[in-house]
Design goal:
The chain is an all-alpha fold and 166 residues long. The protein has one domain: Four Helix Bundle (Hemerythrin (Met), subunit A) (Up-down Bundle). Helices cover 73% and strands 0% of the residues. The chain is built from 6 helices and no strands. The chain is flat.
């Protein structure tokens, strides 16, 4: 049987190279790792807060939850405090995954190794601010924090498109 290694080597060499993918900028990669962990813990805290408010207000979304806690069946409507935390959490679910996908593409294509940590930091501060302002019902601060995060995502997306077609 012939040795397939030379054929595989030749095939691999004929593929277009993507030198920009590696190595990733160490500082930007560390910052992305830190902000990803911080955003995870922020979302975890919102989830725990939601559960704590349900317990405090004796509001349960499912009959088994109410029965487990020795309470009456499901409440006819969610408590406004639970709704507020749920909305803040849902907004995170709509924005943070997009940010993480854009951030990895931004790093991988080296769109701007200088701006990457700045964008990542601004987005993270904006999301922490948005959640805080949402929970405290503070407008226009909540809208401004949302806009800051959305602008970071838009800036990264524009730079990604520019890099892809450069």
């Amino acid at each position: 049987m012939p040795n397939p290694t030379p054929l595989l080597t030749q095939a691999a060499q004929s593929l277009p190279s993507i030198p920009s993918l590696l190595p990733l900028d160490p500082l930007a990669l560390k910052v992305l790792g830190v902000v990803t962990a911080l955003l995870f813990f922020k979302m975890l805290a919102l989830g725990v807060t939601q559960g704590a408010i349900r317990l405090k207000r004796d509001v349960y979304p499912n009959p088994e939850d109410a029965a487990y806690n020795g309470k009456n069946p499901v409440a006819p409507a969610e408590h406004p405090d639970v709704v507020r935390v749920s909305n803040a959490y849902r907004n995170d679910l709509e924005n943070i995954p997009i940010f993480i996908a854009l951030a990895w593409a931004f790093l991988s294509l080296h769109c701007s190794d200088t701006w990457a940590p700045v964008y990542f930091g601004i987005f993270t501060l904006a999301r922490f601010g948005h959640s805080w302002f949402y929970l405290k019902a503070l407008q226009p601060w909540r809208a401004l924090a949302f806009a800051a995060g959305a602008l970071v995502n838009a800036a990264m997306a524009i730079q990604l498109l520019a890099a892809a077609f450069h």
